[in-house]
Design brief:
Length: about 575
């Protein structure tokens, strides 16, 4: 039980390793079909922590609007914005109480319209987070639903009448007791919540509910938004007979929760009713349990979604470190499974993870910048649409809070309470959270060296990282060698070389090298070589390629690496990243 709660979110979307379940689909190749969402670089903005305009300590839409020139200066062309709908904020907006209005903390619909306009004027597309696996318990639908068994909204949610005994155990990710059924005395029944008690699961088996969601999507698409990221959607369909799951199922609950029932039918319906009618992109969080599941979500001939967002890669990082061989193997396996059909997202961080450089790189003073640039090089040179989380372009690090009072995230707080209840080791728990808590990635964006890093004139809702005087955007804008300027160069390189870096074939080199990740990207005779040293020591890669005409396009060191042309061996410095045109 203890372990289960500790590992809670880590396992959240982590399926079993996808070893055997994909067989090559014999449909026409579509990987090189040109689409704007394949060519986009998605910059993810966590609005609560981006920029506060009114001094209440909470980021808001006006604040974000005021920084659109910064966003534009990155060179990216799409933004995924975490939820901004009305919400009591049990889970920072992932508990929506009204899907057609803006959260009070964030501003008004007029602010939203101005923001959307401002983005479009700058050539930036806006992808909205759509949270419809569950709503808030303060949504009018749920208020109605719980009011009586006969209410017309009763079937918008999953209820289990208590006279039928206790419902079969379902695991909850955010519940203090790990129990997804919450008893409600008003109607003597339990409701289902895979996340917190304030996030009851919507009943997708009810066509009325589905119709409501499609109308909500049309409302936003008619306003001109350019896409939807479907939160936790792989869990939306359920077997409403609620069969008994085997004991211990929660250790791999994705197997039991993801892509169940008629999920694909609902997505096809959503595609027909909404997605196909607009030029919007669509991505669901999580990609099921197998490559077959992932393909079924995104293969073009199925008319469901555009791209898969899978967690195998991001879940590799562990406090005790990770194996580079494993990292290479996972990303290579995914790429080859999607080499002909479908499309992937490429990411190593988001608002549910601790900071990129602290998890996958080395955030000590000697290597923070180098390893951060190296990881950015990886994300921006793989096949698939890159998703890049705000602040990572500065090499922002984990906050490493050491007191529970510093945390704000419902998941961390409820896990802590659970540990307390069961007499767990709280010190050990806090140590682990310094590495993995989601709040590490949610501290305010570090704009400059003034009070609160220029994020707010008030008291920030979550503490600013103590290192903000040394790590901030204003400083980095002036420094040609900063993480920020390196990131901009990478974005430009990808945008200038779309045939190779977006659509080109990926080939892994020097597979068994335990420190260096080496690969090529190529398209129509054009080839680039990417070499990434994931270690804090010099490391050599044997690449077996002719380097005589190689041109160094980008490196995170001033000096080029040593190339032994005869032997095709390239020696890289610690955390060195290089991109060659061959
Ligand atoms: C996934 C979101 O990314 C996460 O932040 C949220 O807590 C859960 N879904 C529940 O909506």
């Amino acid at each position: 039980m203890k372990q289960r709660m500790q590992a809670l979110f880590l396992f959240m979307f982590c399926p079993l390793f996808f070893k055997n379940s994909f067989s090559q689909v014999n449909s026409p190749t579509n990987i090189t079909d040109k689409k704007w969402w394949k060519e986009s670089i998605v910059y993810q903005i966590y609005p609560r922590s981006f920029k506060d305009s009114d001094g209440d300590g909470i980021g808001d839409l006006k604040g974000l609007l005021s920084e659109l020139d910064y966003v534009k200066s990155l060179g990216i062309n799409a933004v995924w914005l975490n939820p901004i709908y009305s919400s009591p904020n049990d889970d920072n907006g992932y508990d929506v109480s009204d899907y057609r209005s803006i959260m009070h903390d964030f501003g008004t619909m007029a602010d939203f319209d101005a923001l959307l306009n401002g983005m479009h004027e700058r050539g930036i597309k806006l992808v909205m987070d759509l949270v419809v696996n569950h709503s808030s318990d303060e949504h009018e639908w749920f208020r109605q639903s719980r009011s009586s068994r006969n209410n017309p909204y009763r079937d918008y949610y999953h209820w289990w009448n208590a006279e039928n005994g206790k419902p079969p155990y379902r695991y909850s990710l955010f519940d203090v007791n790990g129990d997804a059924w919450m008893y409600d005395s008003l109607t003597n029944a339990y409701y289902l919540h895979y996340f917190s008690r304030k996030q009851p699961d919507l009943n997708w088996e009810n066509p009325k509910l589905r119709g409501e969601v499609y109308d909500i999507m049309k409302f936003w698409a008619d306003k001109g938004v350019d896409g939807f990221r479907l939160d936790a959607f792989q869990f939306a369909a359920k077997d409403t007979t609620f069969p008994i799951f085997p004991q211990g199922f929660e250790k791999n609950f994705v197997l039991y929760y993801a892509t169940q029932g008629n999920l694909h039918g609902y997505l096809q319906e959503m595609n027909k009713e909404v997605l196909s009618k607009y030029n919007v992109m669509s991505v669901a969080e999580g990609a099921g349990n197998s490559f077959t599941d992932a393909h079924n979500l995104v293969d073009a001939n199925r008319h469901e979604l555009n791209m898969a967002y899978a967690f195998d890669g991001v879940d590799i990082a562990r406090p005790e470190g990770y194996s580079v061989l494993h990292f290479k193997e996972v990303f290579t396996r995914w790429d080859s499974a999607f080499a002909n059909n479908g499309w992937l997202s490429v990411f190593l961080a988001n608002h549910d993870q601790a900071r990129l450089v602290s998890r996958f790189g080395n955030d000590g003073p000697a290597f923070r910048e180098l390893s951060s640039k190296m990881l950015s090089t990886f994300i921006l040179t793989m096949r698939g649409t890159p998703y890049y989380y705000n602040g990572d372009e500065l090499g922002m690090t984990n906050a490493g809070f050491d007191k529970i009072e510093d945390y704000r995230d419902v998941q961390t707080l409820n896990e802590y309470q659970h540990q307390k209840n069961v007499g767990g080791d709280l010190q050990k728990f806090l140590k682990r959270k310094q590495f993995e808590s989601r709040d590490n990635g949610r501290t305010p964006f570090q704009w400059n060296g003034s009070k609160n890093a220029g994020f707010t004139s008030g008291t920030p809702w979550i503490a600013v990282n103590k290192n903000y005087k040394n790590i901030h955007a204003a400083l980095q804008e002036k420094d040609p060698n900063s993480c920020l300027n390196y990131f901009k160069s990478l974005v430009k390189l990808r945008n200038d070389n779309k045939p190779i870096l977006v659509y080109g074939k990926y080939t892994l080199l020097d597979k068994n090298n335990p420190a260096v990740y080496a690969y090529t990207r190529e398209n129509e005779g054009q080839k680039m070589l990417i070499l990434l040293n994931f270690s804090p020591a010099n490391a050599a890669a044997s690449i077996q390629l002719k380097m005589s005409n190689a041109q160094l396009l980008l490196s995170n060191y001033k000096a080029a690496p040593f190339v032994d042309k005869e032997k095709s061996i390239i020696t890289l410095k610690p955390y060195q990243a290089v991109i060659y045109q061959l």
